[in-house]
Amino acid sequence: MSSTTPTATDGLTPSQLAAFHRDGYLVIPDALPPSTVSSLLAEVHRLLDTLDLSTHPMTRFLAGGDTGDGEHSGDDYFLTSGDKIRFFLEEDAFDAAGNLTKPAHRAVNKIGHYLHALSPPFAALLAASPTTNDGYVPDMRARPAAVARDLGFADPRCLQSMVICKQPEIGGAVPPHQDSTFLYTDPPSAVGFWYALEDATRENGCLSFLPGSHRWAGVEKRLVRRDPGGRGEGTVMVENDGARFPRGEGYGEELKGERPGEYVPAEVKAGSLVLIHGNLLHKSEKNLSQKTRIIYTFHIIEGAEGYKYDERNWLQPPAEGFTRLYN
Ligand code: FE2
């Protein structure tokens, strides 16, 4: 993209916006052209090659555990990863005796949580316009800042990012959840940007969504630190005593009705962007295929006055604060 003039493809069209509000998610095919996808995949493989298991605490990301008691993911390596690039391993990459059964690069479940600041190719995806970055600038549609503006954000902040590898044969299932459980503001405001860097299919564990559930499914639970302000005490899932729905019209438990519907698998091609409302129920199945399912995702929250991000959240802001999308 050589033009510096914002175009319709910078943000969302009215029909895309309407679909997002109706369903709670939106698939945008071809948000990233193949050249950008290749660059990002090359960066994923470069990062995987830097993993040295001899100095790694062997922290596993137990996706199932995160919706349960949260014990497993609550160690210091996880809790202090908000301003670092760290590697979390697949639960099923270990045998019963606790030995790794896969080579390092095939054992990683996810890489997180500060790629959007520390990895130049991923950081460039947040650039507000094609000209704001002197270095690598990705060719892309639906620029995050323009999308956030169309979604009504006053001061969107990227608070975490991760690559999820969903490894062949062992890529873990993720049970139904809402992202605002893990990234809570009062009132809720999280929106996920989820980029397929490889085709995501039913075979390799694509996402499934419960359309419209963002309207009636309140954020009932939160993942919080046992010891807010401290370290190393792990995390725990607690009842949410704050607002359960975003501000605005059209939300409420009474909207659930008799038939909440069924999960819809979202098979998408590499380069697709999927926007996910923080209240939307979604899940993914285990990857039992021989293919990886590498994706990149980051989340934004509202940083404007009137939105509280408290010290109980498992993820605490880096010294410089959560990353602004608007310059
Ligand atoms: Fe999620």
Task: Summarize the topology.
Blueprint: H1 14-23, E1 25-28, H2 34-50, E2 60-61, H3 76-79, E3 85-90, E4 108-113, H4 115-118, H5 120-123, H6 144-150, E5 156-164, E6 174-177, E7 191-196, E8 207-209, H7 213-216, E9 221-225, E10 235-239, E11 264-265, E12 273-277, E13 282-284, E14 295-302, E15 323-324
Parallel strand pairs: 2-3
Antiparallel strand pairs: 1-12, 3-4, 4-5, 5-14, 5-15, 6-13, 7-12, 7-14, 8-11, 8-13, 9-10
This protein binds fe (ii) ion.
Describe this structure in words.
The chain is of the alpha+beta class. Helix content is 15%, strand content 21%. It contains 7 helices and 15 strands. It has helices at residues 14-23, 34-50, 76-79, 115-118, 120-123, 144-150, 213-216; strands at 25-28, 60-61, 85-90, 108-113, 156-164, 174-177, 191-196, 207-209, 221-225, 235-239, 264-265, 273-277, 282-284, 295-302, 323-324. β2, α3 (76-79) and β3 form a beta-alpha-beta unit. The model is unreliable at 1-6 and 63-73 (pLDDT under 50). Fe (ii) ion binds at residues 177, 179, 282.
Q: What distinguishing features does this structure have?
A:
single chain, 327 residues, 4-stranded antiparallel beta sheet, 15 strands, binds fe (ii) ion
Biggest pleated sheet: 9 strands, mixed
DSSP, total strands: 15
Based on Cα principal axes, name the global outline. Answer: globular
Q: Spans with pLDDT under 50 lasting ≥5 residues?
A: 1-6, 63-73
Strand proportion, as a percent range, falls in 15-25%
Q: Give Rg in angstroms.
A: 19 Å
Q: Tell me roughly what share of residues is in helical segments.
A: 10-25%
The set of bound ligands, ions and cofactors reads:
fe (ii) ion
What is the SS-derived class? alpha+beta
- Element-by-element helix/strand order: HEHEHEEHHHEEEEHEEEEEEE
- Helix count, per DSSP? 7
Instruction: Calculate the mean pLDDT score and round it.
Output: 88
User: Termini distance?
Assistant: 20 Å
